[in-house]
Amino acid sequence: MEEALKATRKGSWTGELVGKRKNGELFPMAISASGALDDKGNVVAHMAHHRDITEQKRAEDTLLAAYEKLKELDKMKTDFLNVAYHEMLTPLTPIVGYTNLLEQSELTEKQKNYVRIIEESTSQLNELIGSLLEVARLGAGKIELTVQEVSIPEIVKEVLEHVKPLVDAKKQTISTVVPDGIESKVISRK
Questions:
Q1: In sequence order, what are the residues at sequence separation of 6 or more whose Cβ sits closer than 8 angstroms to the Cβ of residue 66?
Q2: Alpha carbon of 187 to those of 24, 158, 190: distances in Å?
Q3: Could you say which DSSP state residue 143 is in?
Q4: CA 33 to CA 148: how far, in whole Å?
Q5: Which residue, among 183, 179, 126, has the nearest Cα to 150 in the 3D structure?
Q6: CATH for 2-52?
Q7: Which long-range contacts (CB under 8 A, 24 or more apart) does 131-134 make?
Q8: Distances (CA, A) of 124 to 12, 84, 120
Q9: Per-residue pLDDT reduced to its tens digit, 56-85
Q10: What is the reported pLDDT for 9?
Q11: CATH T-level fold of 66-143
Q12: Which distant-in-sequence residues (6+ apart) come within 8 Å of 15 by Cβ?
């Protein structure tokens, strides 16, 4: 309170103090105070306006608790994604290894086709797992995004190559139209 009175001698003061109700209960309040000066610049009176901010403080506490809970949940999500990444990648490694061994064997055309499907599927799964890790890193702020020139037609072509085995397996077709000259700046991984 002393700080507020000193400040009002020079102008005004705004802040928070603790008030006491008639029943003795303490409560937070916001105060705006200023001094009234006479012709000589001496303080002749103090004026103040106070407002009970109990509900505002409760809301702030609730918001802060929710924020802390969200931070905790976000950390749990990031930890889960990191563990899931490693747990999914572990069984994928021997599949890739044994597929490579199969390729070196004498196989019929039908068997070679099966091996090719396994390779494509493991490659897609590996990319999906990598994307999962990137989401975790992005959420943890460990990936920096930059703006750079990329070729939209090239991106469309890459996406089509990735989904081609799924499309072929379902005997479906995908048509795309990318107008000539389409180039753009997009956010890309650094």
A1: none
A2: 59, 17, 9
A3: S
A4: 54
A5: 183
A6: 3.30.450.20
A7: 132/81, 132/84, 132/85, 132/88, 133/81, 133/82, 133/85, 134/189
A8: 66, 16, 6
A9: 999 999 999 999 999 999 888 878 887 888
A10: 63
A11: Helix Hairpins (1.10.287)
A12: 3, 4, 30, 31
The structure tokens listed for 57 are: 């403080």
CA atoms within 13 Å, Cβ hemisphere of 88? 18
State the SS3 of 17-69.
Answer: EEEECCCCCEEEEEEEEEEEECCCCCEEEEEEEEEECHHHHHHHHHHHHHHHH
In whole angstroms, what is the distance from residue 70 CA to residue 62 CA? Answer: 12
User: Per DSSP, what are the bridge partners of residue 146?
Assistant: 188
Residue length of the chain: 190
Q: How far is CA 153 from CA 4, 57, 124, 131, 160, in A?
A: 66, 54, 21, 21, 11
Each residue's pLDDT tens digit, 128-169: 888 877 877 777 777 777 777 777 778 888 888 888 888 888
Per DSSP, 147 falls in state E
Show the tokens assigned to 79.
Answer: 């930890």
> Dihedrals φ, ψ of 47, to 5°?
-120, 140
Q: Is there a contact between 78 and 139 (Cβ–Cβ < 8 Å)?
A: yes
Domain coordinates in residue numbering, the chain: 2-52, 66-143, 144-190
Largest CA distance in the chain: 107
